[in-house]
């Protein structure tokens, strides 16, 4: 493989070269170790997308609950859009549903959500763990009742 298509110097050229080699049946010329790494990274990317979307959704639900006087159309739109995107993502990558039963995953997502909410609201006294179930969070009719922290 030419140095110009090296994984370390031009990953796109490398990927195109690997695809060409696969289609040509040139398995002996493949960069197996880096291909395996890239395949694993695809899975990690899908997990990161789900976690990121869930954190944004939870942060907005927290803001909705804690700052009822600031509720607006943009928060509502964000919540609705994240719910739709999460639903679609779970349909497209159904193996991600296992993350929904993973307490450690929820802890990380909740931590990200409370960090986002803290940065955007100036508040910082949040519950230790998510007070809502996944079904509540994803229910289009669920909007947390006001909870004022004074």
**Average of pLDDT:** 93
- Main sheet summary: none
Q: Fraction of residues in helices?
A: 55-70%
SS-derived structural category = mainly alpha
Question: Per the principal axes of the C-alpha atoms, what is the gross shape?
Answer: elongated
- The ordered string of helix (H) and strand (E) elements is HHHHH
Number of strands: 0
Write a structural description.
With 150 residues, the chain is an all-alpha fold. The chain has a domain of 93 residues. Helix content is 61%, strand content 0%. It contains 5 helices and no strands. The longest helix has 35 residues. It is elongated. The model has no long low-confidence stretch (mean pLDDT 93).
Task: Name a few traits of the molecule.
single chain; 150 residues; mainly alpha; 61% helix; elongated
Task: Note the topology.
Blueprint lengths: L10 H13 L8 H35 L6 H20 L10 H19 L12 H5 L12
Concise structural overview:
The protein is mostly helical. It has five helices and no strands.
């Amino acid at each position: 493989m030419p140095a110009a298509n090296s994984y370390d110097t031009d990953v796109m050229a490398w990927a195109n070269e690997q695809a060409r080699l696969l289609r040509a049946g040139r398995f002996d010329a493949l960069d197996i170790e880096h291909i395996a790494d890239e395949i694993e990274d695809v899975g990690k990317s899908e997990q990161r997308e789900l976690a990121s979307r869930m954190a944004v959704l939870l942060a907005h639900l927290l803001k909705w609950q804690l700052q009822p006087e600031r509720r607006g159309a943009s928060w509502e739109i964000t919540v609705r859009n994240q719910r739709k995107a999460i639903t679609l993502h779970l349909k497209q990558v159904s193996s991600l549903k296992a993350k929904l039963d993973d307490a450690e995953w929820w802890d990380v997502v909740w931590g990200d959500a409370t960090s986002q909410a803290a940065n955007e609201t100036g508040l910082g006294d949040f519950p230790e763990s998510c007070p809502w179930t996944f079904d509540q969070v994803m229910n289009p009719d669920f909007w947390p009742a006001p909870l004022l922290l004074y």
